[in-house]
Amino acid sequence: MSQALHSLLEHAEAQRDEAIAALVQAEASNRRLRQQWDQLHSYHADYAALAPTLGGQATSIDRLRGHHAFMQRMEQALAQQQGLLAASDAQVTQRRQLLLEREIRVASVRKLQERRLFEEQRSTLRREQTRSDEAATQRSWRESARARSATH
Fold first, then answer.
1. Domain span holding position 138
2. What pLDDT score was predicted for residue 128?
3. Per-residue burial over 68-88, b = 16 or more CB atoms within 10 Å of its CB, e = otherwise
4. What is the CATH number of the domain that holds 36?
């Protein structure tokens, strides 16, 4: 195997390994964001269930306003978290695609190495066959020459 192909394979494998690490990191970040969103969503639902008017009892307007304002902030936080999660999902998808491309590159270089090795082996066999054929031809000529000189 040529040194250039060996170096190319090492480089392709290093890029693939970097892509794996980036994907693992992106997936971990995505899981954290998803957990945060789930917790925030659960808290939002729990707090909504505690609405002052749900108990059927009278409550002050200030308490209603406070609850409503907090629910709005929670909904904004949920929307922001959803945006972060969508961006994270897109990044995970992008990193998976990059990893796939890098895996294909590594496989391509390995296939090229296999083909080159096969071609080298085939060339070696051809050279050996040519040498063998030439040696057989020379033997045949010598034997033919001896046979002619022996009959004369």
1. 3-151
2. 94
3. eeeeeebeebeeebeeeeeeb
4. 1.10.287.1700
